[in-house]
Amino acid sequence: MTGRLGTLLRRHRTAAGLTQEELADLAGVAVRTVRNLELGRVARPQRRTVEELADRLGLSESDRSRLVAVARGGDVEDVDDADDEQAGSLPGDLADFTGRAEELGRLAEEAESAGRAGAMRIVVVSGPPGVGKTSLVVHAAYEQARRFPRGSFFVDLRGMDDEPTTLAQALDQLLTALGVAQLPPSTDARLTLYRALSADRRGLLVLDNARDEAQVRPLLPSGPGWLVLVSSRNTLAGLAGAHRVPLRELTDAETHTLLTEAVGGGRIAEESAAAVELGRLCGGLPLALRVAANRLAVRPEWSVQSLVERLRDEQRRLDLLRAGDIEVRSAFELSYRLLDGPARRAFRLLGAVRLPGYSAPVVAALTDEPVPVTEDRLDALVDAGLLTAAAIPGRYALHDLLAIFAAERIDEEETAADREAARERLAGHLLGRTAAAEGWLDPACPAPGPGFPTATAAVSWLDTERPAWWWAVRYVAARGRHHDVLAAARHLYWYSDRRHLAVPWDELFALGVRAAQAIGDPVAEATQRNNLGWALHLVNDELDAAYAQHSAALALAEAAGDRRTIAWSRCYLAGLLRKRDDPVATAQAVEHFRTARGLLWEVDDKLGWIVASYSLSDLLRSIGQLDEALRMVQDAHDGWATALPDRLSSRPLRGWMRLRLGLLQADCDRFAEAEATLLAAIEDFVAGDDPNGNGRVHLSLAEVLLRAGEPDRARDLLDRATSLLEAVNDVPSLRHAEQLRAQLEAPLR
């Protein structure tokens, strides 16, 4: 009688509008208890539990007596058969179904609309293999069955099989579930009968595992008031009028709940950190999580940590994610096998380079196909559930387990030479694009070359494809392609000035130092040591290590007689010396700047001369030489206006000059002028997309407002400055911000 008890309990619960969780909470029992009762898994339920459930359901005395009688194993006469069973053919619900609250909410809204509007509602639940599409639509069908008292029906279309369910087979299942005892002889006659029967009733129909639209269309009911839930790895874009619910991986919280339900709360609680890692190794994929949970359930002697340690090995992970006849790799293979040859090749070539995201041009470089053709391939992979369209248009993501599967496929189906050729094509494409972007970012470049229409487009590409081009730099470095490494370091220099945290710049410029040493170019080595010192100083806040790099760079440049590199080395050293707050060091810094300024003028490095001029102005201001400081910053500004093109890439340079000018104006108690100048500097940094400069000028404006006696405005600016500086990890400026904050708070103490 346990099956009849489950049917009767479910009917009363859905009639009451309660979920299993809500009923369990009202009755003070575990959710698993309600689930197991409804699934017929409890042979002898406790009378007290059944009575408590009956009371919380608000049953009439007769309904309550019948429920208790069935629970006690009463005879058939104890129960009215006509009321117990809905017409239908739903498979069993998962006893430990977890999460998906948002998706279930959307499906509930669609069910309500079907009933209220009297129209048919079609919902396609799509997603990658193993994401739990079938579990969701079946669970949702049970939750919404009360809205469709005349039947809930289920057909497995077996879309991933070599021989999917035919129309005739699907109609046989549906007509039988609808109570037809004698089926018409032909498929056409059965289809006509199905349409006639579905036109006269409301119902809920689950079409599971659909291959394509052609499988679904003939099975759609012909009458109003139906809710049709379709699950498919394909998005079924051609199914008109359908609402779509893309299914993603489980969240960390949902993953934890699933493992707790499947493995046992105590076991998971004891190894919570390992459980979190287990969920992430499974990528939040319900199929993988259930396999892992099953392995732990049948191996009570295993710790969660022991399974985690096995799964860390990517070469073994898919082998381990198998339990009985459930296998993650097989789920992937079903979708892969159904692709055409070019789409399969595109998928497996993704395994050549593991990236967090892919664009059509990146994949086109891997496949050596035109971008429009590649876009079609990517669409096919998305439709097959093997690739996910990201939130950013034109971007795609590959699930971690699918990335492992793609790597398996490329190793099995492509030669070593073909794999390496794909990587070479990609590295060449990416480094070529960084070279094209440099022209838009270098303030002194008179005319950027083709490749990007604007500076904003160049920076956007560098931001978006950062993991890819960083891979390319390390790829050529690992292969000893020293000239390519030096070119990449040169092309990315001005981007590093805008994005301090984009990549580990100390690592990139250290690669540049080694490349220059390998080819025996002391000037290139000095340049890369200066770049490395900049990263160690401004990004890592390692002042002594930075000083050593710039000192080595100066020695190399002097030995080679390269005046330009000598000048830049002196500028960098001066910037470090002034931070020592020592009169001797300050005097050395002034001398370095003056010498550098003269050398840069001699070699006609206008950009360097401008930087040396406003940097010297900043230092002179700090020691009270305001007149010369003003003259220096004015020289720098005049040099910017006459020597550099007025483009977005040169605007931050003017911003730095205006920042110095604004501080000097404040020193002369010209606070209104100072504020206007600093606000103009903010415009320059915003226009030039320089977040570090933007943070620094906000900090300076806060300081000026504090000095002008406007603490409230200063506090607001300081909050904004801190946020900007934290984003770029400008440690020295953040320390200065804390000092200003202490000054602001001092009167309040």
UniProtKB/TrEMBL annotation:
<dbReference type="InterPro" id="IPR001387">
    <property type="entry name" value="Cro/C1-type_HTH"/>
</dbReference>
<dbReference type="InterPro" id="IPR041664">
    <property type="entry name" value="AAA_16"/>
</dbReference>
<dbReference type="InterPro" id="IPR011990">
    <property type="entry name" value="TPR-like_helical_dom_sf"/>
</dbReference>
<dbReference type="InterPro" id="IPR027417">
    <property type="entry name" value="P-loop_NTPase"/>
</dbReference>
<protein>
    <recommendedName>
        <fullName>HTH cro/C1-type domain-containing protein</fullName>
    </recommendedName>
</protein>
<dbReference type="Pfam" id="PF13191">
    <property type="entry name" value="AAA_16"/>
</dbReference>
<dbReference type="InterPro" id="IPR010982">
    <property type="entry name" value="Lambda_DNA-bd_dom_sf"/>
</dbReference>
<feature type="domain" description="HTH cro/C1-type">
    <location>
        <begin position="9"/>
        <end position="64"/>
    </location>
</feature>
<dbReference type="GO" id="GO:0043531">
    <property type="term" value="F:ADP binding"/>
</dbReference>
<dbReference type="GO" id="GO:0003677">
    <property type="term" value="F:DNA binding"/>
</dbReference>
<dbReference type="Pfam" id="PF13560">
    <property type="entry name" value="HTH_31"/>
</dbReference>
